[in-house]
User: What shape does this take?
Amino acid sequence: MVKQRATCNALLERHGRSFATELGVDITKNTPMPLFRLLSFALLASTRISADIAMDAAQALVEQGWTTAARLAHTTWRQRTDTLNRAGYARYDESTSTMLGDTCTLLLGQYNGDLRRLRARAGNDPGTERKLIKKCKGIGDVGTDIFFREVQAAWPELYPFADKLSLRAARRLGLGDSAEDLAQQVDQVTYPRFVAALVRCDLAGDHEDISSAAS
Assistant: This one.
């Protein structure tokens, strides 16, 4: 237990920043703009592209002022494609541009662009939330996992949630095999940041460095 605590501290010291924080949004506010920006990032990060490039592309959308479904829906396919391409999102810029447009159309048509309405329609049930979110073009299980991993800070019915990447890192670090195991390591407020840190560890492949720092 002492070893696990030291490992958690080392992990949080090195990687303890949520992806929502990197996006520059406070997801705990549970308001439409942060939720939409998080979903956009999840869509961008779902393709076979690095998390850094997905983040750059998400920030490029923000720089254009496309921070809500309504604003993004008023752009053209070419505008979206060119913006993604300039951000380095080159291999999937055209298909992702289409999916972003289709997702905005769905969100506006079904939920007035507000993902809280999706949650309400799902009755705050995680399984139904997953089913409804996957109706968004470009959002499959991977994208939903990315969204759930971060939004659990605002949607407590999802807690504790951990995706495959975070659990893979947790096993290598000796922190457990399930979300329930991980929830024993930190408090609920810290947990989303903790799971994000595990994902960053998996992507960086620096498990040994963290284990050494904890020794």
Observations:
- The chain has a mean pLDDT of 96.
- Residues 93-111 form the longest helix (19 residues).
- The CA atoms of residues 100 and 130 lie 18 Å apart.
- The chain is about 65% helix and 0% strand.
